[in-house]
Amino acid sequence: MKFSAEDWPRVQVSALLALLMVAVGSVALYAANRFHDAAERARTVALAQRSEADGKLRRVREEESEIKHKSLLFNRLQERGMIGAEPRLEWIELLNDIRDRHRLLDLRYELSPQRPLDSAEVGDFAFYLSSMKIDLKLLHEEDLSRFLADLRQQARALIRINRCHVERLPAGSEERSGGRANLAAECEIDWLTAREAARKQQADDGRGAGRQGAVAGGERGTGR
Asked: Counting CB atoms within 10 angstroms of each CB, which of 122, 141, 147, 153 has the fewest?
């Protein structure tokens, strides 16, 4: 195919249009790539911000749940007059009273020193607990159920039962001589109370001084 002088201007126009289209396409491709990169960066930032927001929301909900739980616990303690210093002597008298009422064969206990439930406070109050180990000799398993039920209902403290283990005594053991105890029970419980937070440091200082003795506020006893 031959080009004449008259065809050359048309070829130039077509070539210029083709070059212009290539240039426009290149610019469009570059812009699309830049837009895609920017979109990816924006997406990454958005995901990071969302993850951070979700984490903050989760922590807030956990704190709200903990505060709600402690508030409910405090309300229960307040309703039963469990706010203030531990009435330890009253607790021991209650144990002996329940023992006598249900004619339990043997009751032994060991009450540990009081300690803070944790570092958190609810309003103007802080929570404390005292752990107790209880050993019982029983005729029937129902004796243990009645003992714990009465303790929960009557104690001026919130009773938290951590563990109870019951085992049958061997037929020839000393404990079963004369047809007495059939079962031995060992329980670990907590006595929970609350106190004004302003007095917390004073109570902690008092417990620290008490540790100079052999047992810092710990008590042992028997209901025989």
From this structure: 153
Model pLDDT, residue 20:
73
Weakly modelled stretches of the chain, pLDDT under 50:
176-178, 201, 205-217
What secondary structure letter does DSSP report for 83? Answer: B
**Residue 163: count of CB within 10 angstroms of its CB:** 9
pLDDT value for 126: 84
- Which of these, 208, 223, 221, lies nearest to 113 by C-alpha position? 208
CATH class of 88-196: alpha beta
Nearest to 116 by CA among 200, 199, 213: 200
Which residues, other chains included, contact 105 with Cβ-Cβ below 8 Å and sequence gap of 6+?
136, 137, 138, 139, 180, 181
The CA distance from 30 to 37, in Å, is 11
